[in-house]
Amino acid sequence: MKPRERQKNPTGSEKVTIYDIAEAAGVSIATVSKVINNRGRVSEQTRERVLRIIRELNYAPNRITSALGGKSMYTLGLLIPDISNPFYSEIVRGAEDCGRKWGYNVLICNTDNDTRREMDYLLSLREKRVDGIILATASNTDTRREDLESLGIPVAFISREIPGFESIRVIVDNFRGGYLATRHLIDLGHRNIALFTEPLNIVTSSERLRGYAEALQEAGIPYRPEWVRPGGFGVESGYRLAEALLRDSHDPMPTAVFAANDQLAIGAIQAFKEAGHSIPEDISVVGFDNTILCTIVDPPLTTVAQPMYDMGVKVVNLLIEAIQNEGSGSERIVLEPKLVVRRSTAKPKSPLPR
Amino acid sequence: MKPRERQKNPTGSEKVTIYDIAEAAGVSIATVSKVINNRGRVSEQTRERVLRIIRELNYAPNRITSALGGKSMYTLGLLIPDISNPFYSEIVRGAEDCGRKWGYNVLICNTDNDTRREMDYLLSLREKRVDGIILATASNTDTRREDLESLGIPVAFISREIPGFESIRVIVDNFRGGYLATRHLIDLGHRNIALFTEPLNIVTSSERLRGYAEALQEAGIPYRPEWVRPGGFGVESGYRLAEALLRDSHDPMPTAVFAANDQLAIGAIQAFKEAGHSIPEDISVVGFDNTILCTIVDPPLTTVAQPMYDMGVKVVNLLIEAIQNEGSGSERIVLEPKLVVRRSTAKPKSPLPR
DNA sequence: ATGAAAGCGCTAACAG
DNA sequence: CTGTTAGCGCTTTCAT
């Protein structure tokens, strides 16, 4: 009649286990397990007694162990370039809110667009047996595809996808977005439009560039490679890009800039203003994303909006659905970007003063 | 000579376990475990063979199971009001960066300052046996103290503490911060200074209020309760607070506002501008935190800076140290806030036009 | 240098 | 309704 030789818990200092509860309640661990998980038949009387003991002993079932028995840990991994970027923090908020509704927690990982670090995280998350992974990837090669497949975990892409890779993807039509931004400028009368962009190996960048080129072509405006300027990701990068643009002598100078994310746009605006140009009188600027920054910057930034929060919600919904169906999912949700016109764009007044 | 009756892995489709490796390498699972964890003595030859097999079979040790054997999951829980608030996303970035250096992952939880949800998360994290918890709490009652103690997990406070609760705390001297902001305004010549603040039950708010009051008193300026206006947390709340201030007839009207966080300050600036007042000519505004928003808003916001990123790094360092020493830690790190003067504050020109 | 075996805390048949 | 028991995948003595 001694089911197991275990260390006792006289002080309550050590972790209390299901055995402690069983013993204190005078039942078997099976019964305790049943009341905890609300399954099987247990008399109301025992159930209550067990629950009382659980409370008295301040017992918390160990999910980590139950996960051993085939259950999952209800945890998702979320890999993004940088949580301190408002674009991603908004996505994460949506994802976490949605995860919570389903009982999942989310592990955040900042990759800084470093594919090496991305891989490290992926491996580590696999060892921790997360149920699924949401990835805003910096990779686009076929190598990474194999890596992902060998992971054996459902992976969903958010915002950035690996072209041709079949799995859940929730993205925006970046080609269209690039087109909309450029077209807006063209419609205003601009013909000399520069493009500031994140590194072009990132899919979203090349797509937005395509949209930009398409709009130009459609309007019969020549595409000038020297006006396409890839930089980094942040405000400082936009600032430097703008400085460089002003420094280089161009004839004519651009009267408008399409910056392929809001931070680049804001950095550019700061540089332009410091150089004595006013926005939008001297130069129009369009951003991309529609982060909170757009409404705060002066002038408020015209931008191409992505539904960030909803995107976070959508991937998580799709991913969890796939997880619970034991599948890996393959929906490709392409959201429509929307042009939001604010005060950073206007008709070109005159050539940029030199 | 059959160590265990296990399902085989002919297709490689099922998860490969340490047994599969052991069998394929012709050694015992103990040996495999040794090479994985780099402990005990294993001949170079076997080690290499095992490693090769591991690679061939694409094996990933199951951390979740090893955690059963007394190890930890190397995971931290991080509870904050809202990740989409730049103040917190910066802290989280610091925390995650630091966690990664130590090999820890972090689970983010958005509480929205809801103490109920905070508790739910706490309980859930305990069941998942996180190694430690970092908390920017919305609670300040003694009840919560018991809850936290009964958790049996090291808890570290970031930014907001529960007064008198012994544990790791990394905070800023909010009293001093409130004083600095108000003092700055007074030094500029303002005597009619309103205070916009988060709800006063939050410790940081009441401390900043104390600082505000102290500065007033020191300058012999009467404290006017009707000028202390608690609101919510976001930009819209600041906007509404400012609207209300303008609406209420005050004689004299405040010539300056100390908004106890940047978002409130920015909302206030927007409202003031829309009402036709210019900043800082008509009204000076000081914020708190020094988020990225300060440099973007127009005019750039004078604020009281907190070292957000470093605070994230510091808590995690302290917490992990405590975890690894099996202790719970009790350091109270109080950082000095620093006034950052930008262009949203100036000498009062004249009474606010009515 | 290597392996057998005893857990870790819990779930899930399967018997009573 | 309740209890027995066999794992889950890995770590860790303790022999060999």
Distance between the termini of chain A: 94 Å
Question: How many E strands of chain A?
Answer: 12
Task: Give the topology string of chain A: H per helix, E per strand.
Answer: HHHHEHEHEHEEHEHEHEHEHEHEE
CATH architecture of the largest domain in chain A: 3-Layer(aba) Sandwich
CATH H-tier superfamily of the largest domain in chain A: Response regulator
Strand content of chain A: 15-25%
Of all chain pairs, the largest interface belongs to: A-B, 45 and 45 residues
CATH third-tier fold name of the largest domain in chain A: Rossmann fold
Largest sheet of chain A: 6 strands, parallel
Oligomer: homodimer
Domain count of chain A: the total is 3
Overall 3D shape of chain A: elongated
Low-confidence stretches of chain A: 1-12
- Cα Rg of chain A: 27 Å
Helical content band of chain A: 40-55%
Structural class of chain A: alpha/beta
The CATH top-level class label of the largest domain in chain A: Alpha Beta
How does this structure look, described?
Chains A, B: This is Transcriptional regulator, LacI family. Chains A, B: Keywords: DNA-binding, Transcription, Transcription regulation. Chains A, B: It holds the Pfam family LacI. With 354 residues, the first copy, chain A, is an alpha/beta fold. Chain A has 3 domains: 44 residues, 434 Repressor (Amino-terminal Domain) (Orthogonal Bundle), CATH 1.10.260.40; 128 residues, 3-Layer(aba) Sandwich (Rossmann fold); 133 residues, Response regulator (Rossmann fold), CATH 3.40.50.2300. Helices cover 43% and strands 15% of the residues of chain A. In chain A, strand 3, helix 7 and strand 4 form a beta-alpha-beta unit. The radius of gyration of chain A is 27 Å and the shape is elongated. The N terminus of chain A is likely disordered. At the A-B interface, helix 4, helix 5, strand 2 and helix 6 of A face helix 4, helix 5, strand 2 and helix 6 of B. The first copy, chain A, binds a DNA duplex (16 and 16 nucleotides) through helix 2 and helix 4.
